[in-house]
Amino acid sequence: MLQPVVFFLIVTTLFPLSLSPQLSQLRDIAPGIVWVGALLSSLLALENLFRADMDDGTLEQWVVSGQPLSVQVLSRTLAHWTVSGLPLVAASPLVGASLAVPAAAFGMMALLLALGTLCLSGIGAAGAALTLGSRRASVLLSLLVLPLAMPILIFGARGVDLAILGESTRGPLLLLSALTVLTLSLTPLAAAAAVRISLE
Amino acid sequence: MATWTWFHRFGSPPFVYRIAGRCAPWFGAGAVLCIAYGLFGGLVLAPPDYQQKDAFRIVYVHAPAAWLSLSCYTTMAVAAFVGLVWRIKVAHAVASALAPVGASFAFVCLATGSLWGRPMWGTWWEWDARLTSQLILLFLYLGYMALRSAHDDLQRADRASAVLAVVGVVNVPIIHYSVYWWNSLHQGATVMKADKPSMPAEMLVPLLVMFLGFTLFQLWVLCTRLRAEILERERNARWLREEIQEGA
């Protein structure tokens, strides 16, 4: 459960080591590092989203329970987010401090990361459900999810960038919120369809 | 009722197999004629551009490829949706046959764009909004094909990749506009001037003919690939054995 956070911390440590430890330079690239790190570590956690439920037959129970499958998938996704996405949000000030992000931007960075990881969990749930029946799911999953996650990265990184510069983050924040609402309302339907297919 | 019966036949593999076989040569001939005329008109007859000189001529391949890479994805998603909702096997075969075609067009579009960028922008790759969203489209195609090949069971591969195609097509406009938004923040949209002078007819007509030619070419390839796809899927069916014996 802790693995994604540890991965997040390690990946963000790689950048100062490989680029430059100069604080002014780090601050310039901090939004990119934080977001790429967060995306990759959530991706790492996604593989287990439905795997255990698939193996022990929980998914079949969902399907035969008579409750709408998409709602069950959504609640599973949100529960998964609290153990995979939320720890990243909690760890973000730590990473921010190490990358010379001013303390005033921590709050906005955490908020944007919370929205972004939620959104990614939504897309990832569909991706994880689609790869349930396939071999070598982890590489495939990143191939499916990452292109769809580009807008999250764009809005999120831009928002953190603006927050570091001390400017208004209203635009990216609203766009990212809209994207999150849209994703969480539509992707459970796709994920539910994919779960049904994998059980056929 | 009568109007629907002809439509229903498009769900039957034997009918589609025969129709595709009958249409393919026509599409092929049309494509060869149109592309031959378009290339001649574009490369020889059209005058050089006053700013870009002869380098602009790559547009005769680049723009049709870009248009087809997008339209292939949309068609693929529509076919996948039809297959998913009405469980029509032929629709899945269409989606499956289209994916590599669209991916190739996306690749051709990127490659020609990059070739054009070298003399025009002085670099092989520019993080231009159009190039970037085209690149992401190529990734979407690759993901679709990877998901399809990761399943052993054909029906499951069909249905799972259909869900992905539908999710992808909903996302394409979001990705497209977010990339434009990102691009306009990082660099001015100076690469292509918005107030482009409109094309004179001797440049435009070959381009339109090339669009038509590429579309016909795509239909030709689609018919051929669709037949191959049906052959593989229906390899145990009796109608296919009879069909092949008849032809032989």
The CA-CA distance between the termini of chain A, in Å, is 30 Å
* Class derived from helix and strand content of chain B: mainly alpha
Largest sheet data of chain A = none
Helix content percent band of chain A: over 70%
Radius of gyration of chain A in whole Å, from Cα? 17 Å
Return the average pLDDT of chain A rounded to an integer. 90
Overall form of chain B: globular
Order of helices and strands of chain A: HHHHHHHH
Query: What fraction of the residues of chain A are assigned to beta strands by DSSP?
Result: under 5%
Tell me the number of helical segments of chain A per DSSP (H or I, 4 or more residues long): 8
Q: Helix count of chain B?
A: 8
The quaternary structure here is: heterodimer
Number of strands of chain A: 0
Number of discrete domains of chain A? 1
Structural class of chain A: mainly alpha
List the keywords.
heterodimer, A: 8 helices, B: 248 residues, mainly alpha, 8 helices, 0% strand
Walk me through the structure.
The complex is a heterodimer of chains A (200) and B (248). Chain A contains 8 helices and no strands. With 200 residues, chain A is mainly α. Chain A has one domain. With 248 residues, chain B is an all-alpha fold. In chain B, 80% of the residues lie in helices and 0% in strands. Chain B is built from 8 helices and no strands. Chain B has helices at residues 2-8, 13-45, 59-86, 89-121, 129-150, 154-186, 201-233, 238-247. Chains A and B meet through helix 6, helix 7 and helix 8 of A and helix 5 and helix 6 of B.
